[in-house]
Specification:
With about 150 residues, this protein is an all-beta fold. It is about 0% helix and about 60% strand. The protein has a single domain (about 5-150), classed as Jelly Rolls, CATH 2.60.120. The strands form two sheets. Strands 1, 2, 4, 7, 10, 11 and 13 form a seven-stranded antiparallel β-sheet that branches. Strands 6-8-3-12-5-9 form a six-stranded antiparallel β-sheet, with no helix packed on it. The protein is globular, with a radius of gyration of 15 Å. The N and C termini lie close together (about 5 Å).
Length: about 150
């Protein structure tokens, strides 16, 4: 199997109390994928700040939103062209999202999630996606990546 990453490519600004989709991976034609790792980190400065809500959502891509296309990078396995596509830093939010997982993360830290074998979030429908959305109570920046396995 080959694994691929989509990353934020540097800081993405989060506005206070505003949900922002920061990353997405969209399934290619007949190329289901599963998320094997997700990492998010923040650069907040206040030790007493409220936690950032991080959400992993399924997206039908009915309203794909507006974002920067991101070149998917091979992370491991036999190098081959990814069938899926990546996006980052949405300026218009995608619609028809279903929250699958939700976490609170302190804005001075970050977190890495590695999903247990056989329990990885999986997208099996061509043209649909998983997205990572963050809502910070106070303005801060976020960086991170999603690593997926196709097939």
């Amino acid at each position: 199997m080959t694994t691929y990453t989509v990353d934020t490519n540097g800081d993405i600004a989060l506005s206070a109390a505003t949900a922002k989709t920061v990353l997405s991976y969209i399934a290619g034609s007949n190329a289901p994928f599963k998320i094997i790792e997700l990492e998010i980190g923040f650069d907040g400065t206040s030790p007493t700040a409220e936690a950032v809500t991080v959400e992993l959502c399924k997206s039908t891509e009915a309203g794909a939103g507006t974002a920067t296309s991101h070149t998917v990078q091979t992370a491991g396995g036999t190098p081959r062209t990814a069938q899926g596509t990546g996006k980052r830093n949405f300026t218009a939010e995608p619609t028809v999202l279903t929250v699958i997982k939700r976490w609170l993360v302190h804005p001075q830290t970050g977190r890495t999630w590695q999903f247990p074998l056989g329990r990885e979030p999986q997208q099996t429908t061509s043209g649909q996606a998983y997205v990572v959305r963050c809502t910070a109570p106070a303005a801060c920046n976020v960086q991170g990546y999603v690593e997926v396995e196709e097939g």
